[in-house]
Design brief:
The chain has 399 residues and is an alpha+beta fold. The protein has four domains: 90 residues, Rossmann fold, CATH 3.40.50; 40 residues, no CATH class; 108 residues, D-amino Acid Aminotransferase, Chain A, domain 1 (2-Layer Sandwich), CATH 3.30.470; 103 residues, D-amino Acid Aminotransferase, Chain A, domain 1. Strands 8, 9, 10, 11, 12, 13, 14, 15, 16, 17, 18, 19 and 20 form a 13-stranded mixed beta sheet that branches. A hairpin with a 2-residue loop joins strand 8 and strand 9. The radius of gyration is 21 Å and the shape is globular.
Length: 399
């Protein structure tokens, strides 16, 4: 099967990786000549999809088009061309229009009774502020006092679409749901760890959530899915605060990071399922998962004398990435490393029968890299500890 992935940044890396795991050929399309996913695809077309349609002939030769970006102009053009040319496009514009706006999604949550952080001005300090139309951690700020809030208000007055909520402490979790016609199937819960900028630095499986909390999470997700009538993949992120799950955000698109972890832990390939829904027009069969393998998926950056674990933002500007099996003892790494390089980044993946086995493998890989490059400084920051510096990942890896 031949598919086109539109967008070569982090979502494109995810889509290309999983498409290859399904045995598919991938044509990557991006206006940037050297996006991260270019080193993973089978063929590359450089074009701004929103500006012209000269590449439409190429798309007629693929069975499925997978958008892997959040550019409104490109998504509109793809939706228009897919309708005109009868192309299979793995995209739900209605659900995406709500999930891509935190203001619209928060209104949906209020309408259907979904628990969320308290909004300002009902909330007290500390607060979290985030732009309505940005995904992930982009421009997210924590504000601890009235004075800081006043300063932020003045400096940000040109923007009118901020979401302001109470800041909650606790572990974060993610789940994907697959929508097909009037049916929905929740997939595996994964655990998220953030860096000091609230960007996801590490994803773990299986989840530490209890069975009853997983059941609650699934019910929340199904309630949102039915309200949106989702077709395709939607991701839901929650935080567990004082024993209660509260929804932070939703994304009606293929996310980055968590689908790979779900695939390696449970064997369920979300990209392959998108093909079943949008190309074959069939309800996908989600196999029962009797056990979940342990997976640790994280991003690291190496520079002279230093290693830092950090959010996926460090991968976005790294140029073309390549898949390297067995990278310093890992199962796989997606990296721009080249022999002799003193600065490079990698998404390093470890799996095992249990999480403990995967974590032990991860620690050995980290030590091998540190020894090979003589890296004395090791940083693994979190929101509560802006600059955690440890001499060994065996003592400082888990925040």
């Amino acid at each position: 099967m031949r598919v086109a992935v539109i967008g070569g940044r982090l979502q494109g890396v995810e889509a290309t990786y999983l498409a290859h795991k399904a045995g598919w050929e991938v044509i990557l399309v991006d206006k940037d000549p050297f996006p991260p996913a270019r080193g993973l695809c089978d063929a590359f077309i450089q074009v701004d999809v929103a500006e012209g349609n000269e590449f439409i002939r190429e798309l007629r030769e693929v069975q499925l088009i997978i958008p892997a970006l959040e550019d409104e102009g490109v998504l509109s053009a793809l939706s228009r061309w897919a309708t005109m040319e009868a192309l299979s496009l793995a995209f739900d514009p209605g659900a995406y229009a709500v999930s891509s706006s935190k203001i619209r999604s928060d209104q949906l949550f209020a309408d259907i009774g979904i628990p969320v952080p308290l909004p300002w001005p009902k909330a007290s300090f500390p607060l979290i502020v985030k732009p309505s139309d940005a995904s992930g951690s982009k421009d997210v700020r924590r504000i601890d006092s009235a004075e800081a809030f006043q300063y932020w208000s003045i400096s940000s007055k040109e923007r009118k679409d901020w979401v302001i909520q109470e800041f909650l402490e606790g572990p974060s979790f993610s789940i994907e749901v697959l929508g097909f016609g009037q049916g929905y199937q929740t997939l595996q819960v994964t655990d998220l760890e953030m860096d000091s900028d609230y960007d996801c630095k590490r994803v773990r499986a299986p989840s530490i959530l209890s069975e009853d909390k997983i059941g609650q999470f699934e019910e929340l997700t199904l309630t949102i899915s039915r309200a949106l009538n989702v077709r395709g993949i939607m991701d839901v992120e929650v935080i567990l605060h004082d024993g209660k799950l509260k929804v932070l955000e939703i994304d009606a698109r293929l996310p980055s990071q968590t689908p790979t972890v779900v695939y390696l832990s449970s064997g369920i390939n979300m990209v392959e399922m998108l093909g079943t829904v949008f190309w074959k027009g069939q309800r996908p069969v989600v196999p029962p998962v009797s056990s979940q393998r342990g997976v640790v998926y994280e991003h690291l950056k190496v520079s002279p004398g230093r290693m830092e674990i950090g959010g996926e933002h460090m991968m976005a500007s790294a140029g073309p990435l390549h898949l390297v099996p067995g990278f310093f003892g890992s199962d796989e790494a997606i990296t721009n490393y080249a022999p002799g390089a003193s600065e490079w980044v990698a998404t390093v993946i470890h799996a095992g029968k249990t999480f403990e086995e995967a974590w032990d493998k991860r620690c050995r890989t980290i030590e091998k890299i540190r020894e090979h490059f003589s890296l004395l400084e090791y940083l693994d920051p979190s929101p509560s500890i802006p600059s955690q510096n440890t001499s060994s990942p065996l003592t400082g890896g888990e925040d």
